[in-house]
User: What shape does this take?
Amino acid sequence: MKMGNNNLTFILILLFLSLILSGCALPSLPFLPGGGRAPEASFRTGTQGLVLTFLQNAPPREVIEGQDAQLKARIENRGATDVTNAKILFTAEDELFSTGESKSATFSLQGKSPDFPLGDQTIEGVTLKARENVLGQRERISTTVRAIACYQYETVLVAPVCIDTDIYSTRQIERVCSQRDHGFTSQGAPVAITRVETEMLYSSADDTVKPQFKIHIKNVGNGYVLKSENEEYKKACSADPITFDDLNYVRVSANLPDKELTCFPEEIKLRGQEDIVRCTFSANERGISKNTPSYTSPLHVKLEYGYTTAISREVTIKSSS
Amino acid sequence: MRRNIIFAIIFLALFAYGCTPPDTRPTTDFRRGSEGIVMNFVQTMPPPTIYDDSNFDLIVEVRNRGAYPQDSHRSIGALYISGFDTNIINMYNSKNLPALEGKSAHNPEGGFDIVTFHGGVVDFKRQNIERYEANFKLDACYQYETIASETICIDPDPHTLQRVDKVCTPPSAYTFSGGQGGPVAVTRIEQTVLSESIQYKITIRNIGNGRVIDKNALARCPYDLDHTVLNKVRFSGRVSQEQLSCAQRIDPLTLINNEATIVCTIEKPSQRSAYTTPINIKLEYGYTSSATRRITILGTP
Assistant: This one.
């Protein structure tokens, strides 16, 4: 009887230990078995470029007449493109504030990358001085101060497309890929490529096929798209007026490996914030032989544009008396 | 006492297990199975992720799991690789199949070899890409044969009223499963005794996981196949020494939905009593099958 109880106890201990061990998970390894780096998350995601935020109390909610106040904005590059020679302009009502010698600053910020997953940031600012004796009989007056950033940006998309030369499906062979349209949400920039449609155009003259890509473009950020040529976008950060002709221009370029594509139009004006561009082989570029078996290829699309984004804060000027 | 009984039982069990008579049955018939050439990518060569501006070896294990050919002195086909952008990966796109012996009595596993495709990846910075998912598709195109051999019973006078002890009685149909050492197999033979002849309705079927092609059209495999060369099998057969005479065109036959039925006859033998005799059917065809592998190529940071 005593031996039986001992055996039972031993079995119960074994069962208990088994339960404990089965609940233990081994720590996950940072590297794949046999070496190599674990796969990285893509940095080309998100719909933002430069993001501006006023620092707390810069400006303060209330300023006394005749007093100085700091107007400081944190500028973060949350997109995947490096920004160089961008401009930030601070504005306040001239009747109420003087802003000293310079209301603007130029800066450069690195964008997100595998080595810099959050992107770079900086702080720029000006010193405001609330003018004296502007309130008159009033005890306080509210006004808005603003910071506007103007910069050149890019959107880059590398999309795997299927080059399927058997456009009429006459060849009785299993394909390695099938031609289909691709949808996208964002590429780490405020202007995004939302869709790529592929079509194969057959040329009977030389029995070749030329792929044509229909690229859908959309402003998905909360700012405005401007012409990038000749730094036209910097108009938004100056006293120069912006016209309808300055807005919503995007330059498009695309290529397959070793094949530059021609896009129509090369510079597109977004209508209602979204539009379509067609890119294909140029007229003098020979197509892909119809006998080539289907394969996947990376389509590289680049959008170049100017962008402007702004923030504002309400400030109350109080009487000094 | 009880312990002694337990030991005795254990001893007897071991004794009975050890005294099983040796298996004198002949070794496995090598003309079995539904496979021909089988290919498998070696998953670590290259590894699932590699980097640009480098060379790599894509290694494939090739086995002959069918019963053709019975000699290993010649290649029966070729391997073709595709599915990737040749502006990114440089690779020679075809190689002859190594000479692989089919299964036989002294080689029941069939021939085995390794084929290596050497590849090089271009510098991604030059192509403005950071990542490429390379899909490698390997197609094998080869000629093959299936030989179906079976002993059948011929009863020239099945409805005789005489009381005769027969050596054998033909079934309503001979059915075959598991294949005859090739991807195209004979699946059924129905025998009917007519007044002047004996009729055989023979069903053949593609039981492999590839596609049948005309063996004379292998040069068009795998990228230029169409309905004129697909599903074509060349058929011949004999019962004992007599060639089967078939009603329809058999050179080649066309499989429809992977199957074909042929009606052939031999002259009715003069003897009246039932007897057993071999039937041999030879199917000649081309075959194509494929395997795929995906590799991720990253740009060097």
